[in-house]
Amino acid sequence: MFQKVYEEGWRETDFMTLYSLCCFSRERYDEAARILTELIDSVPGEKINQMIPELLEAYTGLFTIHGAEPFPIGAVAEKFSAFLNQVGDRIHDYEEQLMGILLGACAATVTEEGEEIRELVSQIQELLSIDSPEMMPEEMAEAYEIIEDERFSEMMKLTIKAFMLLDDMEYPEEDFEEYARFKQLDAFLCQLEAWPSQRGELELLKKEYPNIYECGTDVWEMLRQSRANKGHMLGAVLAEYGKMERKFKCGHYYELYPERRAAQVQWDSQETGTFVRQGRKIGRNEPCPCGSGRKYKNCCGKGR
After folding, report:
1. What distance in Å separates the CA atoms of residue 195 and residue 95, rounded to the nearest whole number?
2. Is the confidence at residue 207, as pLDDT, over 60?
3. Quick one: pLDDT at residue 231?
4. Residue by residue, what is the 3-state secondary structure of the chain?
5. Half-sphere exposure of 117 toward its Cβ, with a 13 Å CA cutoff?
6. CB 48 within 8 A of CB 28
7. Angle at CA 146, nearest 5°, toward 191 and 228?
8. Pick from 13, 93, 109: which is nearest to 61 by CA?
């Protein structure tokens, strides 16, 4: 639908923004970036001061897309620098949005165009009165470096994005907490299925990216404990994941393991209802399948 309207010549600002979000959600990053670039380039110089929020949203989108799928971003940084020079002191009314772009620009400094991007980072820091050593938590900087590190698998990068770099482009604030939980469950299930093949990656993570490793200690420990109760752990997580997947429809787990969908608990409706249990019921005094070491009644079964 978006493509058809676009081909008919529609270029209204909100439409272009929504079109790019649609492309981003479907991982069509080149198209998403092209749409936002066209939006920025279409604004006449005399109207820039009237469209500061819209242009900030477009630039935020471009840096977010770059974080998901790097592309030559030097020209974007140059345009944004010129934009900042033109709007002058008016930019101080939008410091929250500017901080978001700063984080995206900091992430881009680890790429081949890093030297060019650092000039933009310095410009934004000066506007926000931020000192360089404190501009980004160490774990966030490490997360962006891992995304560029070819020694890590796509599954590990998926996990880092889900737990550390989750963007909020697609979902409104009221849905975002649930969306974040879904993406984290999706990444954990993929890791659980693959374990223990990724042990080497965890050792590399612990050695070279200690802050990220420390952030994920609970996840890594659950993976290590899964050897004895992997089936129970999968069942417990899938009970929550399966229903959420029907709502968000953007996970990787069922794409990689389609046979798991067929074995999943069946609900009598998508949003509400009872479910038909498939598999043995967990006893209240049995070890909890989540791997916590506590009894089921004192852990995931508490209050049931």
Report:
1. 43
2. yes
3. 82
4. CHHHHHHCCCCCHHHHHHHHHHHHHCCCHHHHHHHHHHHHHCCCHHHHHHCHHHHHHHHHHHHHHHHHCCCCCHHHHHHHHHHHHHHHHHHHHHHHHHHHHHHHHHHHCCCCCHHHHHHHHHHHHHHHCCCHHHCCCHHHHHHHHHHHCCCCCHHHHHHHHHHCCCCCCCCCHHHHHHHHHHHHHHHHHHHHHHCCCCHHHHHHHHHHCHHHHHHCHHHHHHHHHHHHHHHHHHHHHHHHHHHHHHHHCCCCHHHHCCHHHHCCCEECCCCCCCEECCCCCCCCCCECCCCCCCEHHHCCCCCC
5. 20
6. no
7. 20
8. 13
| Summary mean pLDDT of the chain | 81
Length of the chain: 304
Residue-wise pLDDT tens digits, 148-159? 788 999 899 889
Q: Is the pLDDT of residue 232 over 60?
A: yes
Mean pLDDT, to the nearest integer, of 231-245? 85
Residue 287: beta bridge partners? 295
